[in-house]
Every structure is written in C-alpha cells, then in structure tokens.
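This follows on from our talk about sequence and fold. I would like you to pick a protein and set down its sequence and fold. Go ahead and set the record down below:
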Amino acid sequence: GDSVNQTEGPVTVSERALMTLNCTYQATYSDSYHFWYVQHLNKAPQLLLKGSTTNQRPEHEGFQATLVQSDSSFHLQKRAVQASDSAVYYCALSDTVTQGCGGAEHKPKGSRRLKSGRGIFSP
C-alpha cells in the first residue's frame, strides 16, 4: 500500500539557517499528489505545499519542496528559518483523480486516502 516516511523529530536548526525535512514515499500510482502540512502549537494543521508530476517544485512563503520520482522523495526546505517556523510538519500522500467518461472521478480505491508522517522542527 501507499506510505510515507519522514524525518523523525525533533529537528533543531539555528535561526537564519537552512532547514531540510526529508520525506520519502511508496505510492501505488506514479501520479499521486504530495503534501506538506504545518501545525503550529495549539492550532489545527494547515496545508503548506502541494506537489504533483505537473508541479514538482511547489513554493509558498519561503518554503519549497522538490518531488523527485526517481528516488521517491518530496523533501521540504526553507532558507533562513525563523523562530515562528517552529511547528510540527507532516508529509502526506494521496491518490490523484482520473478522467472518466462522466468527468473527473476518484480512482477505484474509493475515498481519498491520505498517508502521513510527522516531523517536528524547532530553531
């Protein structure tokens, strides 16, 4: 089945340094969607980045992830991290949709599956 593995937390990085959180995955389909979520203290998780075969280097607010299908990785990076970046980061994976005769529909597995791991970053 599908799965993700990511940097075991906590990860400690000095302020203004480069942060890298690693995420590798196993996916049934080569065209899966890949996600990074961020959860700040006492807050709900929020979508940070979404990658796919058509968007292999998504960026948002200084964060960037790179999807490398040849080594099944979707690593997250941010240059010059700040104390406000302290949070729990989740790497996740789900099936994409496919084009059917009636329009877009989920792949035969049924409901969207989301597999996630967990990493903690603290500067």
